[in-house]
């Protein structure tokens, strides 16, 4: 167990260093992410300048948009294509011969790459905080629970990316899967528009999925839209999704490896 953990820690460190070596990606991430954040702020300021929607006024929305920027930056910041590339080109067969758990090794690599996206998230959010001065969390406890909810995105984001990559065993293509995954996360997380502004049936559908925990859960806790019990319930649901998707990925992997083909065989 100790040797396995050491190997996974080494993989995470290698992935982190690899991502940090591409500092140009930070600049692009800050420019693109900062641009979308500014557009979002301008749009919501126009819509909420003199009124509110579904309990969101301009003050609350400033915090909501910043939290959405941080969570989506982290969710999209992981090196999501590596597993899919291994599957599509067949090199996953080599991984099967190595004395490491494939899923845990990929999780270490992915989380390492997610950590590399923290500078983009921090710089962007600090800039937004200075420009727009969003409100503080509803309480110190709400702030701590918000941070914990965001921390839970690391395993949850990996599992969604990993499961989508495993589909390449059957599709042999990744581009469409990646586009579909990012669209689902962006829409059903509430990053595009708050779920509270959607029709009730669509809100119910969204909460049947893991995606709201990317943006709606941390922002709801931060803004005090749920009490402490409600916040703990949301975090418990987020943790349950993380555990459940990990187990589902294990089951899918056992079936998926039967699809491995080498040199067309």
Write a brief structural summary.
The protein is mostly helical and 265 residues long. The protein has one domain. It has 14 helices and no strands.
Q: What is the approximate shape?
A: globular
Strand residues, percent: under 5%
Major sheet details: none
What's the mean pLDDT score? 83
Counting DSSP E segments of at least 2 residues, the number of strands comes to 0
Radius of gyration from CA coordinates:
19 Å
Number of helices: 14
Number of domains: 1
Order of helices and strands: HHHHHHHHHHHHHH
Helix proportion range: over 70%
InterPro entries: ABC-2_transporter-like
Protein name: ABC transporter permease
Organism: Glycomyces rhizosphaerae
Pfam families: ABC2_membrane_6 (PF06182)
Task: Walk me through the structure.
This protein is mostly helical and 265 residues long. The chain has one domain (2-259). It contains 14 helices and no strands. The chain has helices at 2-20, 23-48, 58-77, 82-89, 92-95, 102-116, 118-132, 140-151, 153-166, 168-171, 175-188, 200-207, 216-223, 228-256. The radius of gyration is 19 Å and the shape is globular. The relative contact order is 0.13. Keywords: Membrane, Transmembrane, Transmembrane helix. This is ABC transporter permease. It holds the Pfam family ABC2_membrane_6.
Which terms would index this structure?
265 residues; mainly alpha; 0% strand; globular; disordered C terminus
How are the secondary structure elements laid out?
Elements lengths: L1 H19 L2 H26 L9 H20 L4 H8 L2 H4 L6 H15 L1 H15 L7 H12 L1 H14 L1 H4 L3 H14 L11 H8 L8 H8 L4 H29 L9
Helix pairs in contact: 1-6, 2-3, 2-7, 3-6, 3-7, 3-9, 3-13, 6-9, 8-13, 8-14, 9-14
